[in-house]
Amino acid sequence: MVQEHRPLRGLGNAVLVLLALELTVLAARLGVQWLPRLPLPWPLIDRLDSAGNTLTLVTGIVFVMWFRRARINAEASGWRQRRARAWTFWGWIVPLANLFVPFQLMGDIWRATVPEDRRRDTAWLPALWWICLLAGCVTRGGSHPKAARYMPYLYPTMWWWSLVLLGAAAALLIVIVGRVSDSPIG
Known about the structure:
This protein is an all-alpha fold. It has one domain. The protein is 62% helix and 0% strand. It is built from six helices and no strands. It has helices spanning 9-33, 42-74, 87-93, 101-113, 124-138, 160-182. The protein is elongated and about 55 Å long. The two termini are 19 Å apart. The mean pLDDT is 84.
């Protein structure tokens, strides 16, 4: 079943705004955590973490909508898509598959946006995004009872470099979503 090409720009813009807000929360969170040897304002950190976690959930929903539409549009590019459309959702949820399926999908979408002579090249930008996202989720300090609800999940004892890696992943995703949305499949 081939669906009609639908523009990505509207959803892409929504994802870009939400990711920019995520970067703002991560930067504020990092700034509060790096306050020089002052007693940490835990209520402020809790509020930032709560806002960041809610924002992550909303961003995730809108991103998956964009991701599915981008995957559908990529079908018309002539570049073979390795996974069925359903994996744009299930790839984030199914254990073990969530470690590689979203990256494969993004790589295929990315390759569908480049000229045919460059499609076999390594998709470095999606690869770097995926590495930062996985490392940001895995490299966390301390423990928190809510941390297993969904990934990534901000909580007061996170290591600063987890926040930096998650911020890098968000910044890279801004570039990816922008480029794909402006491409011929967008």
